[in-house]
Amino acid sequence: MMTLSAIADLAVIDDVAITEIKNALPPEMMDELCATFCRDCDQALGEFDGAVLAHDMLLIRKIAHRLKGIFAQFGAQQAAAYAARIAEGEDINPDFTQMCTRAKEAVHQALRQS
User: Fold this and answer.
1) Which of 27, 32, 53, 79 could bridge to 103 as Cys pair (CB 3.0-4.6 Å)?
2) Residue 52 — φ and ψ, nearest 5°?
3) CB–CB of 64/104 below 8 Å?
4) 74 near 21, Cβ under 8 Å?
5) What is the pLDDT of residue 2?
6) Looking at 5-9, 36-40, 47-51, which range is the least confident one?
7) Are 107 and 13 in contact (CB under 8 A)?
């Protein structure tokens, strides 16, 4: 099981990636981007939890790969790397969903800051 500090470390966001996103988009598009990001994360995490309950390893790996991409494009590189390890077949840590939720919240907060 991951420690709380390890979970917190996985929610660290790359400020350069966030700055690039903010510089590339007009401010009025940030609300839409934040909503899309949160919706995609929530959907993937719900599907992930369902796949875990169903013991569907193929689907778990597929969803972990999708989460890797979601997090990587928004600068959550450590969360993306952890999702990549699951996508490649590493055992699932019971704290994975909690870590993803923390990373999602950190990205959301970073995108909303001026």
Assistant:
1) 79
2) -65, -45
3) no
4) yes
5) 46
6) 5-9
7) yes
Give the predicted TM-score (pTM) of the model: 0.84
d(CA 87, CA 82): 9
* CB of 87 closer than 8 Å to CB of 68: yes
Angstrom distance (rounded) from CA 35 to CA 1 = 31
The conformational region for residue 93 under phi > 0 = left, psi -120 to 50 = alpha, else beta, is beta
Nearest residue to 41 via CA among 72, 85, 6: 72
Q: How far apart are CA 32 and CA 88, in angstroms?
A: 31
User: One-letter amino acid identity for 64?
Assistant: A
Residue with token string 């909503």: 35
